[in-house]
Each structure stands twice: as structure tokens, then as C-alpha cells.
Amino acid sequence: MGRGRVELKRIENKINRQVTFAKRRNGLLKKAYELSVLCDAEVALVIFSNRGKLYEFCSSSSMLKTLERYQKCSYGVPDNSAQIRESQMLQSSHQEYMKLKARVEALQRSQRNLLGEDLGPLSSKELEQLERQLDSSLKLIRSTRTQYMLDQLADLQRREQMLCETNRTLRKRLEETSHQTNQQVWEAMQMHGIWP
């Protein structure tokens, strides 16, 4: 008596599902191996579990060669456009890198020249240009320094003015307080009949 048909649907119990997966996976791998041995067939089998774990079987020495053979049979000549695009991007990136490298080297050379280093290879015209550039930089530095000193001077003058104003205010209060104190002493002396 044979088994009845089992309805195919997702197994809800997680443990039962994992056990069934392991049993059926092993059975499938065994069948693939048997097919390759009995029929001298080139067989490739790829299985991913629901957790993303890879299980594979390949009857030939290389899964990659079998997949390339499959791709040629199924899709004709392999699509090289992706490789061409990648090669073009690589070439473009390399050109950009070479441009940036040349620019960095030029900037480093210029920096060394500005520091007075590696001046030997420069022509007379380049030396004159460097001298003009240094003069211009010195003028800018002097101008910036002068402006900084003027700003400091203005700030000090503002502080001096504020201190003078505070000093005047305090002196005035002191005079008023002193006058009031003298007035109170005078009144107290008059009240007690003490005359200076």
C-alpha cells in the first residue's frame, strides 16, 4: 500500500521545517551525485537555506566552468558590456588619479619653491615670477598684520575710554558721598552744640 499524496505547502513549525529542509537537501544532493556518476552527466546544484547558507554540488572540478558553460548554452555569448563598463570606469578613475597626482606634485614643488628649496631647475623667468609672488604675499601679510594692529589699537582705545568714563563716574559718586558725609557730620555737630 503506497503513501497518499502530500499537499505541498510551507511547514509552519520552525523545527519541523528545518528538519525537512535538511533531509530533502541531503536527498537532493545524493540524487545529483548519483545522476552524475550513473549517467556521466555534468551536474551542478546550488541551494540556499532560508538563512542564506549555501549548499552546493558540482560533478566537475569547477563550479565556475559549469556555470559558464550553462550561460553560453542558455544566453549565447556571455555579456561583456558589464566588463567593458567596468574597464572604462577603471580607466577613467586612473586618468583622474593621474591628473590629481600631477596637481599634487606641482603644488608640492611650488610649496618647496616658496620655501626657497629646489630653485636650481627654475628659469630666470620662473624665478622672477616667484619673486613677484613672494612680494605680493609679503604685502598681503603686512597689510593683514597692520589691520590686526589697528584693530587692537582701536579696541584698547575703547577700553581706555570705558575706564576713563568709569573713573569719572566713581569719582563723582565719591565726591557726592564725601559731601553727604560732611553734611551729616556738620548737622550732627550742630545738633549736639559742638562747633568747629
UniProtKB/TrEMBL annotation:
It is found in: Nucleus. Keywords: Coiled coil, DNA-binding, Nucleus, Transcription, Transcription regulation. The keyword 4Fe-4S does not apply. GO terms for cellular component: nucleus. The keyword Coiled coil applies. One of its GO terms (biological process) is positive regulation of transcription by RNA polymerase II. GO terms for molecular function: DNA-binding transcription factor activity; protein dimerization activity; RNA polymerase II transcription regulatory region sequence-specific DNA binding. Residues 90-147 form a coiled coil. Residues 90-180 form the K-box domain. InterPro entries: MADS-box/MEF2_TF (IPR050142), MEF2-like_N (IPR033896), TF_Kbox (IPR002487), TF_MADSbox (IPR002100), TF_MADSbox_sf (IPR036879). Residues 1-61 form the MADS-box domain. It comes from the Eukaryota. This is Transcription factor. It comes from Lycoris longituba.
